Predict the structure.
Amino acid sequence: MVSEYTQLTQKVTDYDLAATLSSGQAFCWDLTGPNEWRGWIAGNPVSVVRGSDCFRLTGRKLTRDVAARYFQWDTDLAALIKTFPQDEPMRQALAYCPGLRLLRQDPWETTANFICSAMKQIVQIKQINRALRQRFGKEVEPGQWSFPDWRTLAAASEADLRECKLGFRAKHLFHAAWQLTAGEVSLEAVESLPTPEARKELMKLRGVGEKVASCILLFAYGRQDVFPVDVWVRRAIHQLYFPKRRTFTEKQARIFVAKYFGPYGGYAQQYLFHWIRTVGALPPSPRLRG
């Protein structure tokens, strides 16, 4: 029998795998050994070992094209970073996690993850992701469950979803899954829509506001100019860039970041977010990602 597993080696430079997989954009990866991560790509289990100058990947039904799309290792990071503003917070963020990348993830799993992210920390979102897999996913290998599709969740019940630690988010995820099953919203159509229209299409889904829609566009559709803003990000921008202002609204924050951070603002925010969250550059807040 021919093995379904493929082993690949890919030379990489300027790629911080640990920062990338733990920076609050993906929730299906776990550190399982020295420089080794295990997670999922395109519905199949994958392990990645970060060598001195390469990735060594082992994955079920894994191809180089699939891995390259997901990890985005062909991105010219140096050229991209040159477009970032040259201010002190940005310099500190870049110095803290050089090589941080944006992933290109599955739209449905990304949508579900961020619907579940409201008032949750990263570790809790990962727990929800794992619980949904174990309860509703397909066991593709012993002890390895793929993420359930929206039809499966739409056929479940809100009570079933609550058992996966979703709380009030269960009704949002259930209804969003039902909307997709009924064809009220098309994640496939979002791919070809201009960003404003794509955001509006995503916001038709229950539990998807402007912030969650922006996260989906950034992490699943490669809209690297999109800078997600919520209460926590607004507070960070306020303290880092406008410390003398008494008030600073989310609307003001959205206008500022759209103009200030340029065509790769989404990339810039990921550096800022990871730096602030891990170093504690701001006072603690419960709103970490959702």
Summary: The radius of gyration is 19 Å. The chain is about 45% helix and 10% strand.
